[in-house]
Design goal:
18% of the residues lie in helices and 47% in strands. The protein has 2 helices and 9 strands. The protein has an 8-stranded antiparallel β-barrel with strand order 1-3-4-5-6-7-8-9.
């Protein structure tokens, strides 16, 4: 572990998450401010981030139906779903939209931390490097991470969990 990685080590809780539209300058709270989450950095160089919309709906625990629906949607899409099947599937869709998570290794230099993902809730985030600019404050107990992508800037403020 290099000296730049050491200040990250620990458990952090999300305290603020804003998204800025880089074209218009409009700033909004992600998930309308109804978020919860943690990011964990280990002294062995691993990172795990898990964030969610606290308003996500409950989903069914009926595995047989879940497998049946997965097979049906995989083979013929959503167009052929009955009203009952669509009603069953909707909470799963909303739940997926309300969750961001990944894990992997991390490295850092003077101004950027690099999250090198090995798995992720979104398939296109697995196996890539997610660079985040960073800044520590409050004697190392507050961490600001931000990144620009697809015309938006996500800014996340984290508080160290003691």
């Amino acid at each position: 572990m290099n000296e730049k990685q050491k200040p990250f080590v620990g458990v952090w809780e999300i305290s603020d998450w804003t998204v800025t539209n880089l074209d218009s300058g409009e700033v909004v709270q992600f998930f309308d401010g109804e978020y919860a989450g943690n990011i964990i950095y280990t002294d062995t160089g691993w990172v795990s981030a898990s964030l969610m919309d606290k308003r996500r709906p409950e989903v069914s625990n009926d595995r047989a139906m879940r497998y049946k629906m997965g097979d049906k949607v995989s083979s013929s899409g959503c167009g052929g779903l009955s009203d009952e099947e669509y009603e069953y599937l909707t909470p799963f869709i909303l739940s997926a939209f309300g969750y961001v998570g990944y894990m992997g290794t991390f490295d850092a230099d003077d101004d950027t931390v690099y999250h090198k993902t090995t798995s992720a809730g979104r398939p296109n985030h697995a196996g890539i490097t997610l660079p985040r600019l960073y800044e520590f404050s409050d004697s190392g107990n507050r961490l600001k991470l931000w990144a620009d992508a697809f015309g938006f800037r996500d800014t996340l403020l984290w508080t160290r969990v003691n």
